[in-house]
Amino acid sequence: MPDYPTVYATCHCHAHRFPVFLDPSTLPKSEACCHCDVCRHSAGVPFVTCIRIPHALFPLTAPDPDNTTRSNAGDGHDTALPKGITSYRSSGHAARYFCSICGCHIAMHFCNQWFLSVGCITFPSLPEPGLQEEEMRAVDGIYKISWHQYLEDTGDGGIMKLMDDGLPRYAIRTDGALFSIRTSNAPAPTHSSDAPIKTKTGDVLTARCRCGSVRASILRPSAIPSGPGVAKRGSSDGQRWLSGHCMCTDCRLTSGYPVSSWTYVGREHLKLEGEGLVYYQSSQRAKRGFCRTCGASVMWDGGGDTVDIATALFERNEGEGVSAVEREWTWLEGGVSFAGDARDRGMKANASTGA
Fold first, then answer.
1. How do 29-34 and 48-53 pair as beta strands?
2. What sequence ranges are listed for the domain CENP-V/GFA (predicted)?
């Protein structure tokens, strides 16, 4: 193991900066983008990407009320976490760890292996944030995305319907079958007048985090046509809301992942429910909401006529695909917001249209 940290794990609010020691002979690491329902609804992003690390990011010790936060991972162990870290057991095999202040997903413990969220990686030799080309070279030296997995959970490919990176796409894991994305199922429309695909969601769309502590009900623009957000973000037929993908530094460091997807909903058309929503002021103009229990990114609110809701949290009926529901409820703006902040070279090139 090197004598000095290879990288640090850093969240947006800088409450946490954990050193990570990587064996240079193992770099760059080949890793996956995971599209499973659990990852998408636990993080509030269209897919998650992590790298395996050879040591625990922090010790899980006996509780100390003055310096630690008790684990809520639900694993039956009386353990404690560094102060300001919340844990969530998203499945029988995985516990996720996120910042209690800004919501950044920092690490995951899965099947006795530690994983680091790639979006929170920072480099000792670079300023924060550094120049984009310098950061991209540094990222190139740490990991490369080599495949996509658990696309079966999306039903129809989700974001991969328009993210053509040429990498293998697996239905579940790499030891199983490849996933075939049917070209007949079109991705989200790119113009407000494009005809939507009808699903079973009706006139109210629900969005929900993994644990269910935060829920959102979304109405179509036509439900309240006089709402000021309709003219700005509603489609011409009154059926859909504008949506987009973002690679900005704030989204990356508050979610822990490279790409976030948002749907811009009129304030009058949105109802938020549940006791789990907490807010973080991520900039002078905006606050973000995430679930205090599972850490899912839920919303971005700049105080205007619309509120951005995490598209990854949209619920769907059995047999419906992620992209099909998005097509019925959203129309996609061209390109990716803040591509100039992107650090992953491949994602910057291939996520410019998204799904």
1. antiparallel
2. 7-151, 205-330
In 10 A of CB 172, how many CB atoms?
A: 14
Q: Tell me: the pLDDT tens digits for 44-77?
A: 999 999 999 999 998 765 444 444 454 554 444 4
CATH number attached to the domain at 186-350? 3.90.1590.10
What is the three-class DSSP state of 155? coil
The per-residue pLDDT for 288 is 99
> Using a CB cutoff of 8 Å and minimum separation of 24, what contacts does 279-287 make?
280/12, 280/13, 280/101, 280/102, 280/103, 280/254, 282/12, 282/102, 282/250, 282/254, 283/250
**Fold (topology level) of 7-149:** 2.170.150
Nearest Cα residue to 268 out of 223, 238, 318: 223
Nearest to 295 by CA among 276, 318, 314: 276
Contacts for 96 with CB less than 8 Å, ≥ 6 apart: 42, 43, 87, 88, 89, 90, 105, 107, 108, 294, 295
Quick count: other Cβ atoms within 10 Å of Cβ 261? 32
- Does position 351 have pLDDT exceeding 90, yes or no? no
Residue 128 confidence (pLDDT): 65
Identify the three-state secondary structure at position 94: strand
The residues spanned by each domain of the chain are: 7-149, 186-350
* Tally of CB atoms within 10 A around 257: 26
Contacts of 226 (CB under 8 A, 6+ apart): none
CA 102 – CA 70 distance, rounded (Å): 18
Residues ≥6 apart with Cβ < 8 Å to 25: none
Residue the block writes with tokens 């990498």:
167
What is the number of residues in the chain?
A: 355
Task: Quick: pLDDT tens for 285-315.
Answer: 999 999 999 999 999 999 999 999 999 999 9
Strands 270-273 and 277-281: unpaired
